[in-house]
Design brief:
Largest interface: A-B, 15 and 14 residues
Order of helices and strands of chain A: HEEEHEHEEHH
CATH superfamily of chain A: Glutaredoxin
Distance between the termini of chain B: 32 Å
Number of strands of chain A: 6
CATH class of chain A: Alpha Beta
Shape of chain B: elongated
Strand content of chain A: 15-25%
Oligomer: heterodimer
CATH class of chain B: Alpha Beta
Strand content of chain B: 15-25%
Structural class of chain B: alpha+beta
CATH topology of chain A: Glutaredoxin
Structural class of chain A: alpha+beta
Radius of gyration of chain B: 12 Å
CATH topology of chain B: GMP Synthetase, Chain A, domain 3
Largest sheet of chain B: 3 strands, mixed
Shape of chain A: globular
CATH architecture of chain A: 3-Layer(aba) Sandwich
CATH architecture of chain B: 2-Layer Sandwich
Number of helices of chain A: 5
Largest sheet of chain A: 4 strands, mixed
Strand order of the largest sheet of chain A: 4-1-5-6
CATH superfamily of chain B: BolA-like
Number of helices of chain B: 2
Chain lengths: ~130, ~90
């Protein structure tokens, strides 16, 4: 089967998802998001003070292709927590506003959800080596 | 279908609404957008009892590879019935 043929990029993505408790696949990087949806998602994660790994999908179109094949999710960004797809910007926004995102991230007593347009509490995102 | 939704033809909120409602049994959609970025609020009985991820996938599946291409961006809010608050 084609799934069993060696696919280094797919394996690297799988590994990144399973090795990082919180990982965001996005356009650009947290310091310079290249898309409004990615920027918004980064801002929500930062406002909760959570550490997260980030992978820029733009340098190679195959990253997005393989990621979507793994996640069965067509759009970017994609947030994974504990190896599971949480969702894209829309779902993350709903969960952020309802407090579910903090819960999913295991954050105790989160600050009340603040507007995400201006991140006031930027935590240094953990960057992982982009080998993809 | 290929010609009707050809790459060169701009998508419209009306088209997206019609396709969501035709593609998901019992769905009611309200779509706004500028031809590239769209926002859809969709309610459907099929959403009952499935995760948000699964609900959004049902909507994405209506458009397949057109997402990110002809339909540059599609924001989705789903609810199980028209009276329920969007969740």
């Amino acid at each position: 089967m084609s799934d069993e043929t060696t696919n280094p990029m797919r394996e690297a993505i799988q590994e990144a998802i399973s090795e990082n408790p919180v990982i965001l696949f996005m356009k650009g990087n947290p310091e310079a998001p290249a898309c409004g949806f990615s920027a918004r998602t980064v801002a929500m994660l930062q406002s909760l003070g959570t550490r997260f790994a980030a992978v820029d999908i733009l340098p190679d179109p195959r990253i997005r292709q393989e990621l979507s094949a793994i996640s069965k999710w067509p759009t970017i960004p994609q947030l994974f927590v504990g190896g599971e797809l949480v969702g894209g910007c829309d779902i993350v926004t709903e969960m952020y506003e309802s407090g579910e995102l903090a819960e999913t991230l295991g954050i105790q007593d989160p600050e009340p959800a603040a507007p995400v347009s201006a991140p006031t509490h930027p935590s240094a995102p953990m960057t992982i080596e982009n080998r993809l | 279908m290929a010609s009707r939704y050809a790459r060169g033809v701009s998508a419209t909120p009306e088209e997206l609404k019609e396709r969501i409602e035709n593609g998901i049994p019992g769905a009611v959609a309200s779509v706004t957008g500028d031809g590239h970025h769209f926002n859809a609020v969709v309610s459907a009985p099929a959403f009952a009892g499935i995760s948000r991820i699964a609900q959004h996938r049902l909507v994405y599946d209506v458009f397949g590879a057109e997402l990110g291409d002809r339909i540059h961006a599609l924001s989705i809010q789903t609810k199980t019935s028209e009276t329920e608050e969007a969740r």
